[in-house]
Design a protein that fits this description.
The complex is a heterodimer of chains A (650) and B (345).
Chain A: E1 6-7, E2 14-15, E3 35-37, E4 40-41, E5 44-47, E6 50-53, H1 60-74, H2 80-100, H3 103-119, H4 123-127, H5 130-138, H6 140-149, E7 158-163, H7 165-169, H8 176-184, H9 188-196, H10 202-208, H11 212-215, H12 228-241, E8 258-262, H13 266-277, E9 281-285, H14 294-297, H15 306-319, E10 322-324, H16 335-341, E11 344-347, E12 353-354, H17 372-380, E13 391-395, H18 399-410, E14 415-419, H19 431-439, E15 443-445, E16 448-456, E17 459-473, E18 479-483, E19 489-492, E20 495-498, E21 502-503, E22 537-539, H20 542-545, H21 550-568, H22 577-587, E23 609-610, H23 613-616, E24 624-625, H24 629-636, E25 644-649
Parallel strand pairs in A: 8-9, 8-11, 9-10, 11-22, 13-14, 13-20, 14-15
Antiparallel strand pairs in A: 1-2, 1-6, 3-4, 5-6, 5-25, 7-25, 12-21, 16-17, 17-18, 17-19, 23-24
Helix pairs in contact in A: 1-2, 2-3, 2-6, 3-5, 8-9, 8-12, 8-24, 9-12, 10-12, 12-24, 13-21, 17-18
Chain B: E1 2-6, E2 9-13, H1 19-25, E3 49-52, E4 59-60, E5 71-73, H2 77-91, H3 108-115, E6 139-141, H4 151-159, E7 165-168, E8 175-178, H5 189-193, E9 199-201, E10 214-219, E11 228-234, E12 237-242, H6 256-260, E13 275-278, E14 281-284, H7 287-305, E15 312-315, H8 320-334, E16 339-342
Parallel strand pairs in B: 1-5, 15-16
Antiparallel strand pairs in B: 1-2, 3-4, 3-5, 6-9, 7-8, 10-11, 11-12, 13-14
The chains are: A alpha/beta (650), B alpha+beta (345).
The complex binds flavin-adenine dinucleotide, iron/sulfur cluster (5 copies) and FE2/S2 (inorganic) cluster.
One iron/sulfur cluster binds at residues 135-136, 155-156, 160, 162, 164-165, 184-190 of chain B.
Chain lengths: 650, 345
């Protein structure tokens, strides 16, 4: 592997240029991939944290020119120094590379780079000139020799990309800084348009997203992340409250075709939206009599009101997609039939089967033993899953388990236990959800593991458990819980709900062994195109990734829509530049939690009003109340607009 | 309350105050260009950058809320360099229009260029052609003079709640553009807040030098709101109407009528004496003549048909006192309750 000869990434300068290769110092601040695409080796990188050079032949002067041009083209023009200063820098470097540089140009570049960096409003200007300063400092001789030679340099090959930490972390890569800025400026409709470029379900995702973006929000380094999720909800709710119908422009592709989508969950709905927008004729086959998948049948109404969900999916139907409810693919219509009748099929059937715990008594099918997904499905369809039962024990530590316990109150079962084998710290459920469940007075049994379901006359009467303690860390890095001998005890309950995971019901693939699946029963597709081994069959969402999150499912649906469109138009599904950058940024991290921003923080994150826990727990009313206009604008004003540019020399 | 020091001076202000407001409260002047009292801070000019002890980055004083215990410096070599660079960059392609610019003499850019002693600019960039179309025909946009401070855009969105103009384009090519001309109410809010001569009133070009104009404060006569405005008077003629920020119920805002509807004052068609129709033609008459005629006719109508046959409409463009007197006259002198008022008369 070719070694890195220079790096200033993250402020740590490693200069191996004059060293023998055995004396090379390692670069710890960045993991620069060797290849951008198969036939393109990464020779150098210029970006927000500095300059990295692998190939000694790299012309840093030319790289600087291309990079700063990219920064200038991404400048929004809303503050003076970045808007004009990077233009002056770009033209100066262009001149230098044309052999018309003057010695005083270097002073101008340095002075401007410093002023822009120190005073610009957002990160484009703040981080943009940084690597140029590094280049001017460490490659001064290169600049001087180009200026003295008075000859133009040969332009190299480059790839450039704009990103932001939040945007990169978002599975569907929403343009977060942009939609947040619109809210700050009071342009709510523009904000929604930006979101809807990619995501047709802002009201849903704005309520229940697991918000990976907020975990990578750079504002966290100085106080607390931006409330990205609830800002999205705000603009969706605002539009709804004004009774406005969004206008979706249908822009048909050169060639349009027919596509069948299996499953009207978030993934299927998003795919239908994009395909319809591109003019394709879409039919969505859905088992239930309503859309939403797990967002309707799993996620309870007090977190996501059904009216919001239906409205957002109905809009896709009003755009022209056809929804065929209560029609099961594999039973009512065969997959092969769909494949024959359509140009492509997108399978997004989710993960709807509960997994078992491997506990004694589980196979007996006692009355009162109900899997988590079934339990929630019944409640969401307005049924009490087991009216006779009153005391509930839910096993698991994820969001599904929390939904099961909190839902129990809402069907008037108020003796509710949650059983989890590790401690609160290791719990995968969202901290906010755990907090809300605590407020509603769920009995949390941490470090507890079920061993046997107790029953009388075929009905559950209790759950025998054992206490656990945390032992050595396992491969996931979490400390493995081990049973404490002689600590067994019985929880008095008549309903036992295992909520430890879901798996896929792949019966629609019967007789279709040519569509590959994994041993975890997920459907095998290309990670970046969502195409399976069978060219006409695509898949995304939970049935591709395993039980996951809404936004990931939506992202899968969107990607598949674009792949299908390409296929119908006879274009190749090779990875695009964006796809390669996605891979690149999984190595060269866009977010660094240790970055010292050097900015004054201390601005409080706005929180939502909540219904009172003692009364809300027995109703299905939405617990979280949205932002007011003022709060939304104040929250959006906290955003640092962390856009940043990377230029790669190949 | 939060206590901080600015240039060594201790300041105590309520939480949420910006550094700029805190500094102003103790008479420390921080240069500003895009900041405007009536709008949320915009943060485009970066003239107001200050240093905060312990933080590497200078911060814009207008957009940064105070924190307890921070030590702020408003003057340093670095800050002066940044402020000068900000101005120099603006001047890279700013036209040398001052002699023919309506804003000359009260232009913030001119003032700051002077204050910072910018006598040469070592930076250069190719000029780009910009579109000079604007949302309202009453306002002329001079794109080359526009510094992109975005006061206009913010005013239209925030003060007026309209959003007829916005920023389009990237980087150096970014420009203030009309996004929805139909929405524009020609209120001139943008014109009012523009710190430079990039927006000028277009009823007439070359308005007269600002230093020769006398500004006469008065109340707008168009409706009952009572907006305060200033007639810009030169040589006995009203050349333009402006408003003073923060003054009166309107705080500096006006509507299209108040701001642009002043040409009637010097109109040739304006009636200056009463007219009486004689033999089918209007003829000039004296006030005494006219009033006597009206009084006679009213008396005759009243005698023949009773006072109920007479009604009176008065106007929002009159003062309270005049309106009071009018209804008193109708009730006491004419003897009728048929008196009304219309905001549009
Ligand atoms: C209780 C619970 C709570 C959750 N909470 C959150 C949360 O807060 N935030 C979050 O981001 N994610 C959450 N998730 C996960 C999220 O709901 C899923 O990741 C997401 O719904 C997956 O979308 P999908 O479109 O892939 O599948 P699904 O939503 O499962 O949709 C699949 C659809 O396909 C239909 N279908 C299946 N088989 C067939 C067939 N053969 N023919 C026709 N139709 C078929 C199903 O009826 C269903 O409507 C939660 C999940 C559960 C179970
Ligand atoms: S991108 Fe950021 S730094 Fe550049 S002009 Fe816009 S706000 Fe200023
Ligand atoms: S501060 Fe704004 S732009 Fe920066 S990471 Fe957070 S949301 Fe994204
Ligand atoms: S805007 Fe100001 S600086 Fe520019 S030409 Fe007019 S008066 Fe001169
Ligand atoms: S005249 Fe009024 S409505 Fe029109 S752009 Fe200016 S501020 Fe907006
Ligand atoms: S027109 Fe005036 S107010 Fe608007 S951005 Fe340009 S200089 Fe600023
Ligand atoms: S006055 Fe603060 S940035 Fe312009």
């Amino acid at each position: 592997m070719a070694e890195i000869i220079f790096s200033s990434w993250g402020g740590e300068v490693v200069d191996n240029r004059t060293k023998e290769s055995q004396d090379f110092e390692p670069v710890n601040t960045v993991d620069l991939p060797e290849y951008f695409r198969q036939d393109e080796a990464v020779k150098a990188l210029m970006g927000w944290y500095g300059l990295v050079v692998r190939d000694p032949e790299t012309d840093v002067v030319d790289l600087s020119r291309v990079y700063i041009q990219e920064v200038q083209s991404k400048s929004c023009g809303k503050c003076f120094l970045c808007r004009i200063g990077t233009k002056v820098m770009a033209e100066t470097l262009e001149r230098i590379c044309n052999g018309q540089g003057k010695p005083e140009d270097l002073g101008v570049l340095k002075r401007l780079a410093e002023s822009i960096r120190e005073s610009s409003k957002c990160n484009i200007g703040q981080s943009g000139p940084l690597p140029i300063l590094d280049a001017l400092e460490h490659f001064a001789a290169d600049f001087e020799s180009v200026i003295n030679a008075k000859k133009s340099v040969t332009a190299g090959n480059y790839h450039s990309k704009l990103t932001a930490p939040c945007m990169d972390a978002c599975p569907i890569h929403l343009d977060i800084p942009n939609y947040v800025e619109c809210i700050k400026e009071g342009r709510f409709a523009d904000s929604l348009d930006i979101i809807r470029e990619k995501l047709p379900l802002p009201g849903i995702v704005g309520r229940v997203c697991v918000r990976p973006c907020e975990e990578h929000c750079r504002r966290m380094n100085i106080d607390a992340p931006i409330s990205i999720k609830f800002l999205k909800r705000f603009v969706a709710d605002y539009e709804l409250s004004k009774g406005k119908e969004p206008k979706f422009v249908i822009a048909p592709s050169a060639k349009t075709g027919k596509v069948a989508i299996v499953g009207a969950g978030p993934s299927g709905a998003t795919c239908a939206f994009h395909l319809t927008k591109m003019g394709h004729k879409v039919t969505v086959y859905e088992r239930f009599d309503e859309p939403g998948g797990m967002a309707a049948m799993g996620i309870p109404d007090y977190r996501l009101p059904r009216s919001i969900l239906r409205e957002e999916v109905d809009r896709i139907e009003r755009m022209g997609a056809q929804f065929d409810y209560e029609s099961i693919v594999g039973k009512d219509v065969k997959l092969s039939q769909l494949e024959a009748d359509n140009d492509a099929v997108f399978i997004a059937i989710g993960a709807h089967l509960g997994t078992t715990m491997g506990v004694e008594g589980e196979e007996e099918n006692y009355d009162g033993y109900i899997s988590g997904v079934q339990y929630l499905l019944d409640i969401n369809q307005g049924r009490d899953p087991y009216p006779e039962g009153k005391k509930v024990a839910v096993i698991g530590g994820g969001n599904v388990a929390i939904d099961c316990v909190r839902c129990s109150f809402r069907i008037e079962k108020d003796d509710v236990h949650l059983i989890y084998r590790r401690t609160k710290n290791e719990m995968p459920a969202d901290a906010v959800e755990i907090h809300d469940a605590e407020e509603e007075k769920v009995n949390f049994n941490y470090l507890t593991h079920p061993v046997k379901i107790l029953a009388e006359n075929g009905k559950v009467v209790g759950l025998r458990c054992v206490k656990m303690e945390l032992g050595e860390p396992d491969e996931s890095g979490r400390r493995r819980p081990v049973p404490v001998e002689g600590s067994e005890f019985v929880i008095d309950c008549d309903i036992v709900v295992p909520a430890i995971g879901q798996t896929m019901d792949l019966s629609l693939l019967e007789g279709r062994e040519d569509v590959k699946t994994t041993r975890w029963k997920t459907i095998v597709v290309d990670e970046l195109t969502k195409q399976s081994d069978q060219p006409k069959i695509f898949s995304g969402g939970d049935c591709e990734t395993g039980p996951g999150a809404l936004i990931t499912a939506c992202a899968g649906g969107r990607t598949a829509a674009f792949s299908i469109d390409k296929m119908i138009n006879g274009e190749s599904l090779d990875y695009t530049e964006d796809d390669h950058f996605q891979k690149f940024f999984s190595k060269v991290k866009v977010f660094d939690q240790a970055e010292d921003l050097g900015l004054l923080g201390g601005r409080e994150r706005k929180e939502l009003e909540m219904l009172d826990p003692d009364t809300r727990k027995f109703t299905n009313d939405e617990v979280e109340q949205g932002f007011s206009v003022n709060d939304a604008m104040a929250e959006a004003d906290r955003c640092l607009r962390c856009y940043r540019v990377a230029t790669i020399k190949v | 309350m939060v206590t901080l020091t600015i240039d060594g001076k201790e300041v105590t202000v309520p939480q949420g105050t910006t550094i700029l407001e805190a500094a102003r409260s103790v008479d420390i002047k921080i240069p500003t260009l895009c900041y405007h009292d009536r709008m949320s801070p915009i943060g485009s000019c970066r003239m107001c950058v200050v240093e905060i002890e312990g933080f590497a980055h200078p911060m814009a004083a207008c957009t940064t809320p105070v924190e307890d215990g921070i030590e702020v410096a408003t003057i340093s070599d670095r800050l002066t360099r940044i402020r000068q660079d900000s101005l120099k960059l603006i001047l890279v392609n700013h036209p040398l229009d001052c002699p023919v610019c309506d804003k000359g003499g009260e232009c913030l850019l001119q003032d700051l260029t002077y204050e910072f002693g910018i006598d040469q600019v070592e930076y250069s960039a190719a000029k780009v052609d910009r579109d000079s179309q604007y949302a309202s025909p009453l306002i002329r946009y001079w794109p080359d003079r526009c510094i992109m401070c975005l006061r206009c855009v913010t005013a239209c969105q925030e003060i007026k709640g309209i959003g007829a103009i916005s920023v389009k384009g990237d980087g150096y090519g970014a420009q203030v553009v009309t996004v929805d001309a139909d929405k524009c109410q020609s209120c001139g809010e943008c014109l009012q807040v523009c710190p430079t001569g990039a927006l000028t009133e277009d009823l007439s070009r070359y308005k007269g030098r600002t230093w020769l104009i006398e500004r006469v404060p008065t109340t707008c006569t168009y409706c009952g709101c009572g907006c305060q405005l200033e007639l810009n008077v030169q040589a006995g003629r009203v050349m333009a109407v402006t408003a003073q920020d923060g003054v009166g119920v309107n705080q500096g805002s006006l509507c299209v009528k108040g701001r642009f509807g002043y040409e009637f004052i010097n109109s040739d068609e304006r009636l200056t004496t009463p007219l009486i129709k004689k033999n089918g033609k209007f003829e000039e008459a004296s006030w005494d003549e006219a009033l006597t005629l009206v009084a006679d006719k009213f008396s005759a109508i009243k005698a023949e048909h009773g006072p109920g046959a007479i009604g009176g409409l008065t106007s929002a463009r009159c003062s309270n006192e005049e309106n009071y007197l009018f209804q008193k006259f109708m009730r006491a002198a004419v003897g009728t309750n048929n008196v009304d008022h219309c905001a549009r008369l």
